[in-house]
Specification:
Elements (H helix, E strand, L loop, with lengths): L3 H17 L10 H9 L9 H8 L7 H17 L71 H8 L6 H5 L5 E4 L3 E2 L9 E15 L6 E9 L2 E9 L11 E11 L2 E5 L2 E4 L11 E4 L8 H15 L9 H7 L4 H9 L4 H32 L10 H9 L7 H14 L17 H14 L11 H16 L3 H9 L16 H10 L2
Parallel strand pairs: 2-3, 5-7
Antiparallel strand pairs: 1-9, 3-4, 3-6, 4-5, 6-7, 6-8
Helix pairs in contact: 1-4, 3-4, 9-10, 11-13, 11-15, 12-13
């Protein structure tokens, strides 16, 4: 367990998250009662841990109203604190505690710490000692080698998956799930299905094969309704099954002669704890050489329980409520270990929203930086020219066309560059909106260009723009102002235009 102050702060954050979630016992995987068991609070007599364990042990069995009262009592206890250190972690299944990073080799320089009379090097001052086991100062940015059970070799293998920190582990999401939720009796099984059973091991045989030290491991399982064989192949004589003990097994059921066989099933002891590898939607993670799926699943399970509540939430609560989104720590936990497909869907919804939301924010920030760092000429809206153009059209603009033109005109009147996407189906009237915008630029004394991806489209657009302009009195109005009968003039420049005509066009539009 971590330093007392760190773990009290961690517990306080969990209680705050539990209250925000409406006392649903979802702030930590396994619930607050499960946390009491994992931290060993029920076995200690030191305070405030003994009192905390006594208050929180029945939490998962209470209704929301009584849970609120329990949290209020726990907060009062946390506010008083206590001088005693916390209990040690239970050895059966340690939480994802962190080990202090190994100290660097001392350099052979003068001034090394003096030795005591007994020949031992003097201990450094308290402020210079390594951080205690538990949550490190780096938090989610701590390297994975600080996790219990992850040495330098496994850290190098995880790095091949892009996993270097605890945060990387939290965001290493499953790419699929095995549905082992439906627990069956042995007499109900049939070949060809995926099944989860609760059974007792009544025999275990490890049989050598002729294939390079491979062992065939056969177990006979039993429940009150019948028996079943389970089969694995391993390169070791050691296998973690104990005869007479109950396990939960999940895997494919096949027929082998007269027997039904569970082929290479996942299994774990049935001890009342949250199941990780069986009896649930089991996550399947991307792997690399030297990383076993079961090992990685167990590691991520412990990391999610301990560190997911520390993930920073960046969406305001009112936005999450309006969009029906989970908070980020809960979404990450549910994406790794969902209890139901509905829970998984909501977790995916939150992560997908975050991805699109952050992309949109990035686009807006880039747009803001681009616009704030550049200037553009102000093109005021010439209402007389615009009205003359619109009145000459053989149709009236739709509401969507009018709104798009109004927004474009407002952007042109600002001293910042405009970048807009005009979207619509074929024949929806995009060209007339673009022509009106170009006409405003010409009325302000500028030129406008309309680019097309092919020569055929360029020719079509040139004819359409010319026809739209000639339908009204806007050209005559502009020609009178400029004293030029050819204002505005529409010209077409394509790759097919060569020689003197091309030189004349380039000079005319320069």
């Amino acid at each position: 367990m971590a330093d007392r102050r760190l773990d009290l702060a961690f517990l306080a954050r969990l209680l705050e998250l539990e209250e925000r979630q409406g006392f649903q016992d979802r702030a930590v995987l396994g619930g607050l009662s499960g946390l009491v068991q994992r931290w060993g609070l029920a076995q200690t007599r030191s305070e405030p841990w003994h009192s905390l364990g006594r208050l929180l042990a029945p939490y998962s069995r209470l209704d929301p109203g009584r849970r609120a009262a329990v949290l209020q009592a726990v907060r009062a206890l946390l506010a008083r604190g206590g001088p005693a250190p916390p209990p040690a972690d239970p050895p059966a299944r340690p939480a994802a505690t962190l080990s202090p990073a190994p100290p660097a080799d001392p350099a052979p320089v003068a001034g090394r710490p003096a030795k005591t009379a007994a020949g031992r090097r003097a201990r450094p001052a308290r402020s210079e000692r390594p951080a205690p086991r538990g949550e490190p100062a780096e938090g989610l940015e701590a390297p994975v080698v600080r996790l219990h059970g992850v040495g330098p070799t496994y850290a190098r293998r995880l790095a091949r998956l892009g996993i270097r920190t605890i945060r990387d582990l939290l965001y290493h999401f499953p790419h699929r799930y095995l549905d082992y939720r439906s627990r069956r009796r042995l007499s109900e099984l049939s070949a060809g299905e995926q099944a989860t059973v609760l059974a007792t091991v009544i025999s275990l045989d490890i049989i050598p094969t002729r294939r390079g030290g491979l062992r065939r491991i056969e177990a006979v399982l039993a429940d009150e309704t019948g028996q079943l064989r389970a089969l694995w192949f391993r390169h070791s004589d050691r296998f973690p099954l104990v005869i007479g003990r109950q396990y939960v097994f999940s895997g494919p059921v096949e027929r082998e002669g007269l027997w039904l066989v569970l082929r290479s099933p996942e299994f774990e002891p049935f001890d009342g704890r949250d199941l990780v590898h069986t009896g649930r939607l089991v996550p399947v993670y991307p792997l690399t050489e030297g990383i076993d799926g079961r090992w990685l699943r167990g590691l991520i399970k412990r990391v999610v329980e301990r560190f997911a509540p520390l993930v920073e939430e960046f969406l305001p609560a009112d936005l999450r409520r309006a969009q029906g989104l989970l908070d980020l720590p809960t979404a990450i936990a549910h994406l790794h270990f969902p209890a139901t497909p509905e829970q998984l869907a909501r977790a995916r919804q939150r992560l997908a929203f975050d991805e699109l939301f952050l992309i949109q924010l990035g686009v807006l920030v880039r747009k803001w930086r681009w616009q704030s760092g550049a200037e553009a000429p102000v093109i005021p809206t010439d209402q007389a020219v615009l009205r003359a153009f619109l009145d000459g059209l053989p149709f009236r603009l739709t509401g969507a066309q009018a709104r798009a033109l109004q927004e474009i005109a407002a952007d042109l009147a600002r001293p910042v560059p405009m970048s807009r996407l005009l979207q619509g189906d074929v024949g929806s009237g995009k060209t007339v909106v673009a022509t009106a915008a170009m006409l405003l630029a010409v009325a302000a004394g500028y030129q406008a260009a309309l680019m097309a991806p092919t020569e055929i489209l360029a020719e079509q657009h040139a004819r359409t723009v010319q026809r739209l302009l000639e339908a009204g009195t806007a050209p005559a109005l502009l020609a009178g102002r400029r004293g030029r009968p050819d204002c505005p003039r529409v010209v077409l420049l394509t790759g097919a235009v060569k020689g003197a005509e091309r030189r004349w066009l380039l000079q005319a539009i320069a």
